[in-house]
Design goal:
The protein is mainly β and about 325 residues long. The chain contains five helices and 21 strands. The strands form six sheets. Strands 7-8-9-10-1-2-11-14-13-12 form a ten-stranded antiparallel beta sheet, covered by helices on one side. Strands 18-19-20 form a three-stranded antiparallel beta sheet. The protein is elongated.
């Protein structure tokens, strides 16, 4: 989980973290200095006025800038009349089809199996987002995410006692990072000295082939489980893949292989896990459903077992 927003202030320190979506072609320019490229309160729709001699032309910009920089976290402020809060970029939420758990104030992603994964955690002074989803989004957007930070710490000790010398800013820079760390004497406060750290760190996008978006990502090779379809003459279980493409049918496919309509038997208790999660799974006569993600035809009219066709297991699961 990556902290993309943080704000905390006390008597002896203040620390802020904010982030900005930077187009790939703007990364080099944005790394030229350690100042922030997007500030709190930015990212709203605005008009930019361009002067051409005596004429003025206004241009609308969705995020208030013509540089292509976008917010991932938006400060929602209502002039002190209504409570402020932070909002996650709508496109990011829709891209990952995130469910907002209002009670816990977290965002959940549901995978193709119906499993729920926590992607965003929102706390009063901190927001964290899972790195994988950030980098997948960046891949398709052709952007980097700039994690911007600005922190000050004050001390009642002078710099000599701390083993430090006054410095306007020790600058560090590489291909992903640019920051300045400075020390000085505190003025107009009860503290003697202070340090100030300011800069940014860039998170890179994944290759588009790993974005998870159809059309860009590589299609995963399907895996098919094996199931017991009988017992041999020595009493050992006979296993066979449930891959429908390898099974025989009544039209001459894969002669000699087990038929698509080979019965596979399960203990009745196999359904317990589904009965225990009625918000996710539905069991009806002859059917098992996981929301609208998948469904499986079953024979659940026996007292001691559940029967499923071998080919259905491979096709539907």
């Amino acid at each position: 989980m990556v902290t993309v927003y943080y704000s905390k202030t006390s008597s002896d320190h203040s620390c802020g973290i904010y982030c900005a979506l930077i187009p790939n072609n703007q990364k080099t320019k944005c790394l030229e200095d350690f100042s922030w490229d997007l500030h709190h309160g930015n990212g709203y729709p605005e008009a930019i006025v361009y002067n051409h001699g005596d004429s003025k032309n206004a241009s609308y910009h969705r995020y208030g800038t013509d540089k292509g920089i976008e917010p991932l976290v938006i400060d929602r402020d209502f002039y002190g009349i209504r409570p402020e809060y932070r909002e996650i970029n709508e496109e990011f939420r829709l891209f990952h089809r995130l469910y907002h758990d209002l009670k816990e104030n977290r965002y959940i992603k549901i995978d193709e199996r119906g499993n729920e994964e926590e992607v965003i955690i929102v706390e009063p002074n901190r927001i964290r987002i899972r790195l994988k989803e950030i980098r997948q989004f960046l891949a398709v957007k052709e952007m980097h995410l700039s994690i911007q930070f600005d922190c000050s710490v004050y001390s009642r000790e002078d710099l000599n006692n701390l083993g430090l010398a006054p410095a306007n800013g020790r600058v560090y820079r590489d291909e992903q990072t640019h920051y300045s760390l400075g020390f000085g004497e505190a003025i107009l406060c009860t503290y003697t000295s202070f340090s100030h750290l300011m800069g940014k760190y860039f998170i890179t996008p994944l290759p588009k082939s790993k974005s998870g978006m159809w059309g860009f990502s590589q299609e995963k090779k399907k895996e098919h489980a094996e199931f017991i379809i009988g017992v041999d003459e020595d009493g050992e279980n006979i296993l066979h893949t449930s891959n429908p493409d390898t099974l025989a049918n009544f039209f001459g496919a894969n002669r000699g292989a087990p038929n698509y309509l080979t019965a596979v038997y399960f203990r009745k208790t196999v359904l317990d896990k589904y009965y225990k999660q009625p918000s996710k799974y539905t069991i009806q006569d002859n059917h098992l459903f996981c929301g609208s993600l998948w469904g499986l035809q079953i024979d659940n009219h026996h007292s001691d077992k559940v029967c499923v066709w071998l080919g259905d297991l491979g096709r539907d699961l």
